[in-house]
Amino acid sequence: MNRRQWIVLLVAGLVGGGLGIGLSSFKYRTASATDSAVEEFFSQELRSPKGEVHSTKDWRGKILIVNYWASWCPPCVEEMPELVRSQTKYADKNVLFVGIGVDSPSKIREFLVKTPVNYPIVLGGLEGATWAKNMGNPSSGLPFTVMIDTKGAIIKTKLGKISEDELSSWIDSVIIPSK
């Protein structure tokens, strides 16, 4: 290969890499939540897969980690054990994880038999994708995680699989240490 071919190859590689990075950041971007998204969330009565009613207003004043997921979504399933461990770690710190299943009730029930969780799972169905969009997820991709502080403000969002370390970083940045 002569020098000119190497330069063309190098430039093509740099352009391709730049496009890849740009498309990746576009795919995983989040938007600002609508002003009414959290108020709308706290005005809901949501059903668990077993039919139990959860009044979201009872969750006000807690640090909420709201995770939109589906049983058919591999990254959603992969992060579930980390969410369970994090709920256990922060249960006594006024932190509550809530899973909103963007899936059919039967699929969610079937999933929970195999993978029990220690936090509320509620049915979002197709409407759950709209809720996620209003909370800052313009692509309606899954998983999507939202952190709501004790005053009811969205302070963090993440589109894509979240890790236990990320969750700890989010939560530790807002909890008041016990004396």
CATH architecture of the largest domain: 3-Layer(aba) Sandwich
Regions with pLDDT < 50 over 5+ consecutive residues?
A: 12-29
Mean pLDDT: 86
> CATH class of the largest domain, anyone?
Alpha Beta
**Given the structure, what is the number of helices?**
6
Q: Estimate what percentage of residues fall within beta strands.
A: 15-25%
Please, how many domains?
A: 2
The main β sheet shows up as: 5 strands, mixed
Which strands sit side by side, in order, in the main sheet?
A: 5-4-3-6-7
- CATH fold type of the largest domain: Glutaredoxin
What structural class should be given to the helix and strand makeup? alpha/beta
End-to-end CA span: 68 Å
DSSP E strands, number: 7
What is the radius of gyration?
Answer: 19 Å
Overall morphology: globular
The secondary-structure element order is: HHEEEHEHEHEEH
CATH superfamily of the largest domain: Glutaredoxin
Give an account of the 3D structure.
The N and C termini lie far apart (68 Å). By secondary structure, the protein is an alpha/beta fold. The strands form 2 sheets. It has a 5-stranded mixed beta sheet, sandwiched between helices. The protein has a two-stranded antiparallel ribbon with strand order 1-2. Residues 12-29 have low confidence and may be disordered. Strand 6 (144-148) and strand 7 form a beta hairpin. Helix 3 crosses helix 6. It is globular and about 70 Å long. Helices cover 42% and strands 19% of the residues. The longest helix is centred in the N-terminal third of the chain and has 25 residues, at 3-27. It has helices spanning 3-27, 37-41, 74-90, 105-114, 125-134, 164-172, and strands spanning 45-47, 53-55, 63-69, 95-101, 121-123, 144-148, 154-159. It folds into 2 domains: 1-30; 33-172, Glutaredoxin (3-Layer(aba) Sandwich).
